[in-house]
Structure formats: C-alpha cells, structure tokens
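FORM 7B - TANDEM STRUCTURE REPORT

SECTION 1: FIRST PROTEIN
SEQUENCE AND TOKENS:
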Amino acid sequence: MFGILLLLHVIGATIWTGGHIVLSVVVLPRVLRQRSPEALLEFESVYEKIGMPALIIQIITGVLLAFHMLPDFSQWTNFSHPITHVLWLKFSLLFTTFCFALSARFRVIPNLTPDTLKTMAWHIIPVTILSVLFVIVGVSFRTGWFF
C-alpha cells in the first residue's frame, strides 16, 4: 500500500509542479509581453482540470503517507522526532500555497485585466517556487536533508 500511495503522490507532484513550471517559464512571459489576460485564463482553465485533482491527490496521499511514517497522531506534534519537522514544513508550504490560491481566485482573477497581470504574476511565481520546494522537502523524507 505504501508504494501505491507514494506513486500517486509523486505523479500528483509531477503534474502540479510541472504545470506551474510551464506556466511560469513559458506561458507567463508570453502573457505579460502580449498583455493578454485571455491567454492566461485559457491556460488556467485547461490546466485546472488536471492540476487541482493532482493537488487533491497529493493532499490525501500526503496525509496517508504521514500516518504511515508517524502512525500515532500525537507524534505529529512531537518536534523531537526529526520527521515531524519535515512534515510541518510540508504543511506550511501547503498553507502558504492555499493562501495564494485564495487570493488569486477571489481577489485577482475576478479583476484580471492587462493592467493587473503583474499582480497575477506575483501569485504565479511564488506558487511555482512553493511547488518546487514541496518536491525538495518531499525528497528529504528519504534523503534526510532537513533532519
């Protein structure tokens, strides 16, 4: 079961992080150059169909994997355990991503114009960085980089 959870988690991370890298490196520069909110919204509408399910799969499998590593929930707050540090780092990244997503969805996207594209860029780039950090921190569960 652990192997299947890990595989689903990694596939979700690949979709989520890869999509945000494409958005940041390929789509966003073109959108900013052309001042085209429509092109950004078009990418978002297509990507959202696989990106959001991928994120949900990551959250579900991440919690299940955390229970596999620390089966007693009380260990999740025992910071003398090295895995707890990494687990809370992942939770912090998730919370920060969630805050950016809420801001983008309810504040930026409804008012998206050529003049507000830079505000959206200031949401896209940090979320991309956060998604890469998710991968790095996830790898650290196996490598011990952050222990």
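SECTION 2: SECOND PROTEIN
SEQUENCE AND TOKENS:
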Amino acid sequence: MEHLASYFSTYGGIFFASLGIVLAVSLSGMGSAYGVGKAGQAATALLKEQPEKFVQALLLQLLPGTQGLYGFVIGMFILFSMPADLAVQDGLAYLFATLPIAIVGYASAKHQGNVAVGGMQILAKRPEEFMKGAILSAMVETYAILAFVVSFMLVLRVG
C-alpha cells in the first residue's frame, strides 16, 4: 500500500491525465467506428445495385467519423501540453475535461451512424433528396461539436 501511495504522489497527475486521454480517444473512437461501420454496411448494400452513388454514400458514411477525430485532438492536446511533474489535482482536472467529448462523442457517433443509414435509404430511392439525409445526419454532429468545445475550454483552464 505504501508503494501505491508513493506512486500516486509522484506520478498521480500523469496517471489521471493519461486516463483522460485514453477515455477521450477510445470512447469517441469506438462510437465513430460503430457509426462509420453501420453506415458503411448500408452503403455497401446500396452500392451493389447502384454503384454510381458511391460519392454520396461515402459522404454519408464519413459523417460519424468526426467524433473520433475530436476525441483524438483533445487527447493529443493534453499529451503535448502536460508537464512530466503534473500535479495530481491537474491530472484529475484533465481527466474530467475529457469526459464531455468522451461520452458525447461516443453516443453521438453511434446515433449519427443510424441517421446516416436512413440517409442511405433516401439516396437509394430519391437521390435528388440526398442533401436532406446529409443535413439530418449532420444535425447530430452539433452535440459532438458542443462537447468538443467544452472539453477544449476545460483543458485550456488546466494549463
């Protein structure tokens, strides 16, 4: 137990900040992988019959991928800005700063993938209405952007 206390008194800040990085990158990345994968499955089904719609299908598939990028940016920003002797309270502050993009990024990417699947259905039956599906899918992005901004502002407050 004494070793654990010694470890956290020396490296606790780095530990908690690193945990935040892991959460921001992995949760938002998992949500994006799910959303992009689900939209990609719908795209492949569409493209079997209508290969000429590849570009529009690709655009719909890419939309849920942005949340993973937002989490990655927050994670890398923390990684490159934290000092080696980071205090425990600052490490905890970094951890909590990552939670908005980690949680909202995960959930919004999954939901955006579902909406993108609906957009594929619009594209299949009414290609002239494609932008309606893209706009509906992009609406989900609003919450990921808000979470990214909150996480970014919180990270700036730690430094």
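SECTION 3: OBSERVATIONS ON SECOND PROTEIN
The mean pLDDT is 95.
The two ends are 31 Å apart (CA to CA).

SECTION 4: SIGNATURE
Preparer initials: ____
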